[in-house]
Amino acid sequence: MIEELSIRDLGVIGEAVLPLGRGFTAVTGETGAGKTMVVSALGLLLGGRADTGAVRSGAAQAWVEGRVLVDPESAVAERVREIGGELDDGGSEGSEVILSRSVSAEGRGRTVVGGRSAPLGVLSEIGDALVVVHGQSDQLRLKSQAAQRGALDSFAGSGLAALLAEYRALHGSWQAHTAEIEALVTERTARIREADQLRTAIDEITAVAPQPGEDDELADVAARLTNLEDLRIASAEARENVSSETGDHPDTVGLIDAARRSLERVAHHDPALAPIVEALASASFLVSDISTQLASYAATLETDEVGELDRVQERRAELTNLMRKYGPELSDVIAYAESAEPRLLELDSDSDRIEQLTALVDDELAELERLADELTALRQAAGEQLSAKVTAELGALAMPNARFVVDVQRREVLGTTGRDLVQFLLRPHEGTEPRPLNKGASGGELSRVMLAIEVVLATADPVPTFVFDEVDAGVGGASAIEIGRRLAALAQTSQVIVVTHLAQVAAFATNHLRVEKDLDGPVTASNVVQLEGDERLAEMARLLSGLPDSESGLAHAAELLEIARSLAVAG
């Protein structure tokens, strides 16, 4: 709901603030005062096309701003948050977002949503979700056949909604399974080739049977075998220096033992030598153990088989070949083999899978056909009801010979919403063929047709805000009263803003705004005034007779307001 609209330098409007709010707002004013600029301002605010010629003469830019109430959990509120915009607390009414747009005389513009600059497309998204405009040349809602089908489905109620949800879920499954069959058949040659490659790889890896970490272990073994003679010499020299068996030169064990014996001879003279003697004894034991380890190590070098290095290098070459093909690491080779086996099983079972999917698709298609037939039946029944109700409304809106038709055509193709092509048609006069809405009525008639449709759809397919421009064109008298009454009825569930020149329509408004000229300056300017009490009565009299001070006009205006109040209460 639009709480307030501010306009500056748009057309003849210099600066104006329009308090809107809930219910039915009527905008009136003399010809040329700028009533249509209100609709133009709303169009700009909702992302419509900018006309630089609408910038007020002498001004650098036109500017509009709107304070809009939205549900904080709605898609609109979420979109505002996505772009970094802010939502203010609107109390029990919801959250408030401020939208603004400026258009310069050179064609440049700026859009702000919730205090954050935003692309114009975001404003259009928000506008499409919040406001529907019905004007002489701009009937936006229900323009496409998809929108007409959606409106009919909403009118049909929960039964069709549940059936449509079931159909859509099944249709998605049917499409997915059909696509899978097509992929399996189309890619069969490539999948056979992939299976052969996987089978070869698995056989090759299985034949080598690599073990985790084996390449690192073999690298260590190869390094030892390659330097075997150096290892033998080094270990023999080390053992000779630690514990000599030849006796040709002192060894480490002998020197430590000699030091220990020297101290043992005098240790009883000084207790401080006792721990040193003990440490030398431990060192002698440790070094002797090292000598034993060196002897064992040397023995292992003597037991290496002839040709073992060749066997290790051959094994490393096998692992390197696998890593080059399926690596780069040995762990990657092992992982490849583990993942290849289930994939090969899947590829080898293609024929079975195609048979299973074909049977499943056939079953799903048969069920889709049944559900589509049920959807068609429900839509046709709902279409007849909608046609009758809208036609009845048209009779009261000065179109007694018009007939509204909901055409539900059954196609062969199963789409995401069934197989029906829904189109709203209008037969404006007897003896003519029903035609699409935008071809079967003039601008004023089309506005009335849309009003009739909106009144019927109000409870089933509600919209936050409706804007009607010249919905009463070419109408007067009792028919104009019926238009006002229906606009008031629509305002029970939605905000309704109407630009009108008829007192019979304006009488039903709960909020009356007048666009008035100011001729004092060199350039005509207009302002917007909220009317109440005597001011509203005078404006009603002006609309009726052209004379705001006429006693008969004032009396007629008071009578009309009273009639409107009684009709609104009654119906």
Offer a few descriptive terms:
single chain, alpha+beta, Rossmann fold, seven-stranded antiparallel β-sheet, 56% helix, RecF/RecN/SMC_N
Describe the 3D structure:
Pfam families: SMC_N (PF02463). Residues 2-517 form the RecF/RecN/SMC N-terminal domain. Belongs to the RecN family. This is DNA repair protein RecN. A hairpin with a 2-residue loop joins β10 (403-415) and β11. The chain contains 19 helices and 16 strands. Helix content is 56%, strand content 18%. α6 crosses α12 (330-348) and α15 crosses α16. The protein is elongated and about 145 Å long. It has helices at 35-45, 75-82, 120-130, 145-156, 158-186, 188-208, 214-226, 228-242, 252-266, 274-303, 308-326, 330-348, 350-396, 437-440, 443-457, 477-490, 503-506, 533-545, 551-570, and strands spanning 2-10, 13-19, 24-29, 61-70, 88-89, 95-104, 109-113, 116-117, 131-134, 403-415, 418-427, 435-436, 465-469, 495-499, 511-518, 525-531. By secondary structure, it is an alpha+beta fold. Among the domains are: 1-140 and 463-533, Rossmann fold, CATH 3.40.50.300; 193-348, no CATH class. Strands 1, 2, 4, 5, 6, 7 and 8 form a 7-stranded antiparallel beta sheet that branches. A 6-stranded mixed beta sheet has the order 9-13-14-3-15-16, with helices on both faces.
Overall, the morphology is elongated
> Structural class, from helix and strand content?
alpha+beta
Mean pLDDT: 86
The CATH class assignment of one domain is Alpha Beta
Helix fraction bin: 55-70%
What are the low-pLDDT stretches, counting only 5+ consecutive residues below 50?
none
CATH topology of one domain: Rossmann fold
The gyration radius over C-alpha positions equals 46 Å
Q: What percentage of amino acids are in beta strands?
A: 15-25%
For the sheet with most strands, the description reads: 7 strands, antiparallel
Looking at this structure, what is the CATH superfamily of one domain? Answer: P-loop containing nucleotide triphosphate hydrolases
The total beta strand count reads: 16
Number of helices: 19
Distance between the termini: 23 Å
CATH architectural category of one domain: 3-Layer(aba) Sandwich
